[in-house]
Write a structure and sequence with these properties.
The complex is a heterodimer of chains A (about 250) and B (about 160). Chain A is mainly alpha-helical. Chain A has eleven helices and no strands. Chain A has one domain: Ferritin, CATH 1.20.1260.10. Classes of the chains: A mainly alpha (about 250), B alpha/beta (about 160).
């Protein structure tokens, strides 16, 4: 039997990844370069927010302190968030958004594929449900990496730059700490460290097709598992949480 | 199994609930209602979301509650389950026909056969099989956008998932 606090910590990591990236994609509403992408980004964001709702609801129940999905989403400060640094990075241009999505989609697909075999039936159910959606998110972002990379000189250069600017956020995704180890031992969590090779092969295949260079492993940043975030998360939360902070428990 | 409630009657009442985003379909046609149960004199209606973030789910839950209450049923719960995950394979034959009549191409093929369509997507306007994908994302989570190369009309396609 696992410790409820450990399971809570594990679930909010998963839920926070989905919610923060979903919020970032929602920022594109009304600003996407073409109508089809306007719809695509909003749809993908909605899928992610749906995943977050299921995971944070479950986390709140496991914790048993009466916090529901909204309480967890709107009433936590940045040091209490456990999302990967990658997903909180600003949208930048369309290439940067697609590069961020491309890395996350490939990672999340592998992670959720493993989690769909979790001994925790509720988590396995959420993972299996989400996996169907992630499979076309991954196709969408991979297509854009190829289209922009193997496009004009301008689109190629921008995509190469985006990949390089985000490259150092990837190692963190594959770290294992005490929470991950405990969840793995309980048969609930997955071994993210073991996914790195498969992840590398999948993204390198796309990068080759996109005529993009795999960046050097020259830098990396970490900290999200301890609540150390980039400054960007604070601004995102300020916007996302404003209403519930200004008017606590407002309903409409 | 429903004992305190007449399952046939409840099913008939629930068949009045439409999908709020595709109002030609009932939630029954969509395969959203998974089963009816009865425990300690209370009816349990088990529903499943089509997509994780489907904004219609809350409306559907409320519509089910309203219609049951309207028909004099008071002791019931509407419960959401995500496992097994909803698949477009659960859309009934009748539902597929209604979609096509409404101008939305129904799922072509079965889920898991590869991509969002494993067979030719047929244009709901002219019946041509010569159609092309515009975008895997459409006006709702469950739809993609296609275009017919014969009649040149763009149309919605209900994805295989």
């Amino acid at each position: 039997m696992s410790n409820p606090q450990t399971l809570f910590d594990y679930l909010i990591r998963l839920g926070d990844n989905s919610l923060i990236l979903g919020q970032r994609l929602a920022e594109w509403s009304g600003h996407a370069p073409i109508l089809e992408e306007e719809l695509a980004l909003a749809n993908i964001g909605l899928d992610l927010i749906g995943q977050a709702r299921m995971l944070l609801t479950y986390a709140g129940e496991v914790e048993g302190k009466g916090r529901d999905e909204d309480r967890l989403a709107y009433h936590r400060d940045s040091s209490d968030w456990r999302n990967l640094l990658l997903v909180e990075q600003p949208n930048g241009d369309f290439a940067k958004t697609m590069a961020r999505q491309f890395f996350f989609d490939h990672f999340q697909y592998l992670q959720y594929e493993a989690l769909s075999r979790s001994t925790d039936e509720r988590l396995a159910g959420i993972a299996a449900k989400s996996l169907k959606e992630i499979s076309y998110h991954r196709r969408h972002s991979s297509d854009w990496v190829i289209r922009l990379g193997d496009g004009t000189k301008e689109s190629h250069d921008r995509m190469q730059k985006a990949i390089e600017e985000l490259w150092g956020f990837l190692p963190e995704m594959f770290d294992m700490d005490a929470v991950d180890d405990a969840m793995l031992a309980a048969g609930i969590g997955d071994d993210v460290a073991s996914l790195r090779d498969e992840f590398d092969m999948a993204i390198e295949k796309v990068l080759r097709e996109a005529t993009l260079d795999r960046p050097e492993d020259s830098w990396s940043v970490r900290g999200s598992r301890e609540g150390r975030h980039s400054e960007h998360l604070g601004y995102l939360l300020a916007e996302m949480q404003f209403l519930q902070r200004a008017y606590p428990d407002a309903k409409w | 199994m429903v004992t305190a409630f007449d399952e046939k009657e409840v099913t008939e009442i629930l068949s009045l609930v439409k999908d709020p985003e595709i109002p030609v379909l009932t939630v029954e046609d969509m395969g959203i209602i998974r089963r009816l149960e009865e425990a300690e004199g209370r009816l349990k209606v088990v529903i499943t979301p089509t997509y994780s973030g489907c904004p219609a789910m809350e409306v559907i839950e409320k519509d089910i509650s309203d219609i049951l209450t309207l028909h004099g049923i008071r002791d019931f719960d509407v419960v959401t389950e995500v496992f097994p995950a909803w698949t477009s394979d659960w859309i009934s034959e009748e539902g597929r026909q209604k979609l096509a009549d409404f101008g939305i191409a129904p799922p072509a093929g079965r889920a898991g056969e590869g991509g969002i369509a494993s067979r030719a997507v047929i244009c709901p306007q002219c019946g041509s099989e010569d159609t092309t994908l515009i975008s895997e994302f459409g006006s709702t989570a469950c739809k993609a956008q296609y275009r017919c190369r014969d009649c040149l009309e763009p149309f919605d396609y209900f994805k295989c998932v």
